[in-house]
Amino acid sequence: MSVNEDCLTAEELKAVGGLRRLASRWPRSLMLASMDGELVVVRNDESRMDGANLDQDAIVAEIDGIPNTGGGW
After folding, report:
1. 0.85 surpassed by pTM
2. What's the domain range around 21?
3. Which of 52, 51, 49, 30 is nearest to 39 (CA)?
């Protein structure tokens, strides 16, 4: 359990658990990225990464319905 999970509702705990189960079988060839508040799946191909930048051709899917911050800390 994470530091703040004790304050989550049953529905929220179920969602977090689902993400953890997905993470355990997620292909290392793909990664999630948050681009200006849009959650996308990108091919984890070093030739498409330029430092902190991502070649938009690497985007293989957009994920709707999961709010995200769109940036780092």
Report:
1. no
2. 5-63
3. 30
